[in-house]
Amino acid sequence: MARAFAATLDDFRGRLINDILAGRLGHEPTAATDAELPGQMMVMVDKMVSRERAVEFRARLDALMEEFNRPDSTAEADVPVNFLMMFWSPVDR
What we know:
The chain has 2 helices and no strands. The chain is extended. The longest helix has 20 residues, at 2-21. It has helices at 2-21, 51-68. By secondary structure, the protein is an all-alpha fold. Helices cover 41% and strands 0% of the residues. The mean pLDDT is 86.
């Protein structure tokens, strides 16, 4: 599993760096209007939460990804999106 994660992160990092160097990252990170593409967004969280909150948040992420992964019609699918999301709760051993 570690190799699969490493390969995914390496691929994503490479594509991100290529887009940054080519000037394709877009405008400043703000909410988009209908006339412009959404800006970049980066979030890293390392915190303690209750078990109930972690379970509820993970379920909401599942629902959001299910919604996001619904297919768009070919005519409407005109904005490329690169997105990497990871969520885990380390287990003390």
